[in-house]
Amino acid sequence: MGLKRVTGGITGRFFLFMLLFSGTLCAQWEYSASYNEAIKFYEEGNLAGAVKSMELAKETYEIFDGDLTTGSYAVIINNLALFYNQLGDYTKAGPLFEQALKISRALHEGDDADLATMISNLASFYNRAGRFTEAEQLYLEAWEMRKRLFGTSHIDIANSLNNIAAFYKGRGRIKEAEKLMSEALAMTKEVYILDNPEIAVCLNNLGLLYYDAGRHEEALPLLEEALSIRKNFFGPEHPEVATTLTNLASVYYEMKRYSETEAFLTEALDIRKKILNEHHPDIPAAMNNLAAFYSLTGRHTSAVLLYGSAISSYRKIYRDPHPDYALALNNLAVLYLKKNDLQAAEKYFEDAVKQYRSLITGYSFSVSEKEREQYLATILSNIELFTSFAAKRYAEHPVTAGELYNNILLTKGFLLNSSALMRQKILVSGNKEVTELYERFIASRELLAKVSSLSDEESRMRGVSYDSLKGTVEKLEKQLSLKSGDFAEFRKVTEVSWQDIRSKLKPGEAAVEVIRSRVFEQEWKDSVIYIVLILKNDSQHPEMVILPNGEELETKILFRYRQGVRDIKKQPDPTVYQAVWAPVSKVLGDVKRIYFSPDGFYNQINLLTLFNPESGRYLADELDVIFLTNSNKLSSLKPEKSVNRRAILAGFPDYNAGGKTAKEARIDDGEQTDDVKVEISESVQRFGLSDLPGTKTETEKISAILKDKGYEVKLLHGVNASEESVKNAGNPDILHLATHGFFLKNVKKENPETFLLGTEKSRVIEDPMYRSGLFFAGAAHAAAGETTGKLTDDNGIFTAFEAANMNLNNTRIVVLSACETGLGEIRNGEGVYGLRRAFIQAGAGAVIMSLWKVDDEATQQLMSSFYGYWMNGESKHDAFRKAVLAVKEKYQTPYYWGAFIMTGL
Q1: DSSP string covering 220-233, please?
Q2: Span 803-829, average pLDDT
Q3: From CA 632, how far away is CA 508, in angstroms rounded?
Q4: Which residues of 220-234 are buried (b: 16+ CB within 10 A; e: fewer)?
Q5: How far apart are CA 585 and CA 724, in angstroms?
């Protein structure tokens, strides 16, 4: 694991003010001597002396001057705050930083260099204290102000770049961080010809970023140069020297220079103990670093003692969850896990994951989805460690499964759930400002989708930039997050526990959570396991079933399953049921209904189509399965009701509207091209975008059923079954789309200017939501590689990216009556990135979709039966289940009745 699990290194700069004294000579003399003495002590590394003298300067100023609204007083308390912060006394530092900025804002109506510095200092304090949302806003405010003040190049701008880059790195935004750090280093070297501590800051930060990226040869000279500059400027005993020693030690470890690693880590700890207050967080950070080295080199007793000391210190320093504290807990847990002391490991793992859950909810609801994803990536690996541990621990201590279930309730599908919740809250807020901002956000996303259909040259000709527009979209999304209220709804969801889910279950029901996990022994193994958590209404704790053959499930078993359901002449393979479900069935016992949340392999199958060789029946006959993205949905379960009686039914599109024939628009699969491997619906591969007259019959039958129940129905056929019409559906109760679907798989990176189904290929590679979609009127042109080049045109190819832009907050169900609409890119813990995700994110209560090519006649019967049962009073789920069983009576083979599944409630 290297030393990648240690903390310390990136510097978020605080700035000391050198005061120009004003006021009466007497008053000036009284506090200037103490002030200057404080600065001298600080530069010598004597922080205790600096605090004492600056406190005296502050008291003297208050006595002799008395005006506590001046810039001079703001400077004094800012610097005092800085000294307290360096000592680790955050309870005193925070209010002083805030007071200093408040005074400075009152003094300066517009932009001011000192004001920008005050803003930056408070941002750095918030960042160190774990208040990341506030920190980022202030960092960006200071940067924008400095750019207005100084133009494109100035040392203050370089400092802002460095601070923001350090912040981004901590949130997992590595590419952005590297770009800003490189700019900061170049700018700083322009200002300072000779060696300077500001250059050392840039060298240190960029060097550590390279280290974390595994670029050790690039990191080494940068960090060595930073250490030399800092020792020459500050002397051998200074906090910044200790920071660089720590970073260099990490590089030395990776280069197997172990004696130097230990010497540098020990020296860094000694420096911090000598010059810092005992409650300063850099001291336990240094302990954690040295403990990690001891652990990695087999000196476990020393490691345990140091980890324990670090954790004890962090408990005193941080009242709220903090990433450094969580990491120390996690590190000690891992050490005990390596020693196979599972009882000792459990306590620290549970404390760590509780911290991580709080960190996720504390930061994630104030940023864009991309930033949320990047931040989660920095945490989820440590949470996965607990998952692997829990699988080992369960046999001896079953209650461990409860904490694992709590983790899953928060983290599984977190990106999807948080985005959907944010949009829902915005749309029902009634806040005009937020609603208008949301409309700008959606309009920008729509424009982004259209720009994705242009080449870079076409974009330049039209004066638009995909990357710039993408940045605008993310900026608007972040503003929405910050403006959409106090996030009470979000916190309510994230505080759900397994006991809350248990209370929603009735006798004979169970919630079943599937978790795909790697295996950790002394290090991460290549093997994969599946953990199934089962919760009943009388459970004392969740029960756990472990399927150790994850690789076999994802290869051999999946192949056998697909062969079995797609070949109407093939007999069911009993080995699939035995591998996939038999162990779970034994624990379920007499349960008749399950709320099933899949992961990994289980997203690629329909559980109901498994054949039980013991009973001779399919699971559809034995068990009622409700598919959910996460069983936390049960915590907010409400009675089903329609807000409106409107339905939009689209089918039988005129794919050739505008000229191309279906034959000319044929889409070839990957076997016929060298640079692209595409997997889409088999019927589209073989016959192109052939007409689907059966969808006209299907939608007309459904229309009659709905109208009979008082629905206002809008039928869209031919040229009217257009992408634009679907986008403008207007939040109906029912949205039914019957057409061809597609899923692009294994897209290679060569020839980046190639277009795939109307989208520039680099966009398809970058975002999986461009790889799934539906074909509507006029799609033949884009499918054949033609583009109109007009940003106002829809091309008839409706991607999942575009579907997510819809407002379906009051839509109870979206029915995707097309082939393979349930496919997409599967991401561990986040489900399938495709159409199902898009419509749920857009607000739909439930989505019906297919996992393989569907039979026209069977599909028509299924859909008509579903709407008939539903309109006659059954719940959506019960109506769909009855419809599936009705089709099954006529067609025994799962190929006909098992392709469609419904996700949601």
Answers
A1: HHHHHHHHHHHHHH
A2: 84
A3: 19
A4: bebbebbbebbbebb
A5: 46
